[in-house]
Amino acid sequence: MTRPRGQRTRNARGFSLVEGVICATVVALMAVSGASAVAAMARARADLVARVAATDAADVLVSEVLAKAYGPPASDGPGKEEAEREGAPAPRTNTSGAVRSGMASVVEYNGMLLHPITDDAGDIVSRPDLVAEIDVTHVVPTTLAPDPDADTGLVEIRVRVLRRVDAAGAAVGGAAGTAGAARTRDVLLVTRVAYRGRTSVLEAGT
Predict the structure, then answer these.
(1) Can you tell me the distance from the alpha carbon of 174 to that of 67, in angstroms, rounded to the nearest whole number?
(2) Distances (CA, A) of 81 to 76, 104, 197
(3) Is the backbone peptide bond immediately before 116 cis, with ω within 30 degrees of 0?
(4) Does pLDDT of 76 surpass 50?
């Protein structure tokens, strides 16, 4: 049967402008969703790698401090424990790169800041965007309550490893992390807690 001139079948009709716009929008949304998923996976992997590195660094520092002898509360000036009793911000000094092998007592680590994280010989042992804070506090053996004034015979060693990031959440390390400190923040990754008595390690945990 002959089709009248000018008549088109439904299947021969092309896309309309509206249909084309809809298809283009769907494709664009799929592309954006795919890119977002890839970016999220990359961030999750980066966070996991950072946490593994932070855990390793914290374990190294806890082992280093526990190897030192027990010591009584410091009495040679306004240290961290004294500042905490007075309600003042705890002073921290970045001792990264300093040789710590000569330290004899655990209390010498109190209030320590390491960025980048170094071992007791002063060598860098972790990623440049990681920061370590070490606190040593005398505690009551029966309750583990802080008692910085007393020689309780037991100290709590707390090591926190944080990741230094910029305003967008990207890792910042090295000179950039120090020079631009006002534009950075530290995100806690790992905390390790251990207890040191006069003669032995009594307990260790997270």
Answers:
(1) 29
(2) 12, 19, 18
(3) yes
(4) no
pLDDT over 80 at 10, yes or no? no
Q: What count of other Cβ atoms lies within 10 Å of the Cβ of residue 191?
A: 15
Of 136, 142, 119, 127, residue with least CA distance to 80 = 136
Which three-class secondary structure state does DSSP give residue 205? strand
pLDDT in tens, 109-160: 999 999 989 999 889 888 999 999 999 999 999 999 999 888 999 999 999 9
Distance CA 119, CA 101 (A): 9
Residue 137's DSSP bridge partners are 156
b/e burial code for range 33-54 (CB count within 10 A of at least 16 → b):
eeeeeeeeeeeeeeeeebeebb
Task: List phi, psi (to 5°) of 186.
Answer: -110, 130
Judged by average pLDDT, the poorest of 27-41, 78-92, 123-137, 175-189 is 78-92
DSSP symbols for 83-137: HHHTTPPPP-EE-TT---TT--BGGGGTTEEESS-B-TTS-B-S-TTEEEEEEEE
State the alpha helices, DSSP H only, in the chain. 17-66, 80-85, 174-179
Closest alpha carbon to 151 in 181, 107, 190, 97: 107
